[in-house]
Amino acid sequence: MTNSAKTPTGKAKKGQVTVRPDGSSIKACFPRSPFPGEKGQVKKATGISNVDGWEIKANQLKKRLQIDLDEGKLASPGGMFNLKRFNEILVEYKLRPDLKLVESVSTSDGQLPPKPALSLMEVWDMYCEYRKQGLRESHYENMYQGQFKNYLESAIEATKSEDALKIRNWLVENRNHQTVKQVLSNLSKAYRLGMKSKLLSHDPFEGMAEEIVGEGARGKTQNETEINSDDDIFDRTKAYTWDEVQIILDYVQVNCPHWYNFLKFKFLTGCRTGEAIAFMWCDIEWDKERILIRRTFNRLTKKFYPLKNDKTYKGEETRRFPMPKNGELWSLLKSIPQGELKEVVFKSKFGKIISDTNFGHQWRGRESSNPIKGIISTLIKKDKLIKYLPPYNTRHTFITHAVFDLGIDEKIVSKWCGHQIEVSNKHYQDVAIFAARTNPEVSATNTQQVQQQAELDLLREQLREQQELINKLLQNKDK
Question: What's CA 54's distance to the chain center, in Å?
């Protein structure tokens, strides 16, 4: 093979681009060092057909990519791979169509050009590049280059096929139905885009997304597998009781103590997983007895984002959550050795940013060569819990506990947790004031009684001081 420089050991030299077979397509594989911002090694489909003579095209492309890599054109200032430049090179070498000119693709005699043999993942990559400009970076990396792509690669690997029906059936059998529906819908759009650009002749996934109903992945019901939605935030069937929370925490404290502080923090605050991961020491205001929720962490981009980055936060940059002195949340945070202000409070066993994927495995369990029992699955087997709920539903649990068990006004809980309910502008500031004064760990009745008692104590003290002043005045008069 002549498409890459090799060392005597058979490996490519450090810093060298290779273009070689990888899975079902020919991919350009890049060294890691120029792209520190990427999650792993960058591998991109080239559009070269895996047929006899592919090495010639691969060698030509490799040389061109190496020149651009050496000149720094393939890396962004932030250390991310410059996909736009890569695709420009593929267009230049006629390995990928210029999607800006798809309407005019035809031969001089008006006939359609021969259809190139595009693999499913090449169709997907083309579609992703087309969609990228209209999506938030975090959503694009999370879903289109993350979860959706992983679903497709897993299905192709498992079925050893790119047959649409086999792909569809495997996904329905093995993955979350809500996400499968999204994957199939986007796949259909990808093929229709290929048809519009006259690269493909039909859409094998047409109508498949509309057929998805029924149970979710691995026998769980759809309600059990749906996550990251606040539409049903007051649904008590999607929350654990506070007694069940204690059962979960007691088990975690004994059997997987590393996750105890992180999990308890989620239950005590109702914050989202990304927000808990991004929580830093500078977000604790001990003197004001409160914490600040003002950023989230994205595992794929490995970046922190302000809350207003996502439309679900209604543009609010900071949420303020009460932390009464010597209460449960106060004591929890005091029990953790304090780090630097810009350090995250909760870390992995190796002192790094927590992975929500690893937390998910610990929560639900994992079947693999390195199996994990799972917190919830173990407690269900022991008859300590009766239902499975996703990690996101620690949020539902706090909110329903605060509203239904403690009787705290749902507008105040909404202010703490950042979910949307209707609050008029006239009362918005009042809600913020009451939210700051309300104790999230005791019932609204108790809070009111404590406030009333404090007011009575203050009144008694004022009366006592007034009586002392009167007595002094009377004594001075007698003299």
Answer: 39
| CA proximity to 277, closest of 357, 393, 390 | 357
Task: Flag whether the pTM goes above 0.70.
Answer: no
Q: Which residues contact 25 (CB under 8 A, 6 or more apart)?
A: 45, 46, 48, 50, 119, 121, 122
* Fold of the 115-226 domain: DNA polymerase; domain 1 (1.10.150)
Q: Residue 338 and residue 331: Cα distance in Å, rounded?
A: 13
Question: Tokens 């977000």 map to which residue?
Answer: 283
Q: Do the beta carbons of residue 256 and residue 263 sit within 8 Å? A: no
Checking if the pLDDT of 172 tops 90, the result is: no
**Torsion angles phi and psi, residue 371, rounded to 5:** -70, 155
Please list, in sequence order, all residues whose beta carbon lies within 8 angstroms of the beta carbon of residue 54, skipping any fewer than 6 positions away: 26, 48
Q: Per the structure block, which two tokens stand in for 223?
A: 């309600």
Predicted confidence (pLDDT) per residue in 51-98, tens digit: 767 888 888 889 889 988 888 888 887 788 888 888 888 888 877 654
CB 277 within 8 A of CB 269: no
- Comparing C-alpha atoms, which of 224, 231, 221, 265 is closest to residue 245? 265
Q: What is the distance between the alpha carbons of residues 24 and 156, in angstroms, rounded to a whole number?
A: 9
- Domain segments of the chain: what residues? 1-96, 115-226, 229-442, 443-479
pLDDT per residue as tens digits for the range 339-354: 999 999 999 988 899 9
Write the CATH number of the domain with boundaries 229-442: 1.10.443.10
